[in-house]
Fold this protein.
Amino acid sequence: MQPSDVLPLYDRVSPDWARTRSRTLFEKRWLDRMLGLAPRARGARRVLDLGCGTGTPIARYLTERGARVTGVDGAASMVEAFAAALPDAEAVHADMRGLDLGETFDAVLAWNSFFHLDAADQRAMFDVFARHCGPRAALMFTSGHMAGTAIGEVAGEPVFHASLDPDEYRALLDAAGFEVVSYVAEDPDCAGHTVWLARHRAA
């Protein structure tokens, strides 16, 4: 299993993934924190969901909370399911690596997606994050809790994961213009996810 296998895998197993994906919304507390941190100058908060999957339950919850969500996924079948589930949201079929939508958002989210990239691509993503963040925008992503690679499972098939060291994530965030608001390794209240929440310093 290589990083290049991840998007074809998700494209292939999208129906099985959607059927087995937890609907308990164990992420709710973190999603609420992200929305609370995101600025709201006028109208609805705009959220960029990188690796959006089918949109359920996360993008659906954000939409129910009044956010305008743009979902991006490199797996075409995931984007199709996202568009069907959330017809009022924008769905974009694109690889997050090197993404440039030409617009900024109040929050950027990469939940259980960013960690499928290899180390070099993860380092390059911090410019992508910054490019899509408006002034004081929130950024939230999940990672591993220590440097290394691992093979997980999705829909009964192996899938690649990687993580940098937490100190390197801190340095990359700082260099890209972000301040860390909260970091919890293997959060027991969030199904063991390691979560980063940061805010863009740009005025």
About this structure: The beta strands are 46-50, 68-73, 90-93, 105-110, 133-143, 148-154, 157-163, 178-187, 193-200.
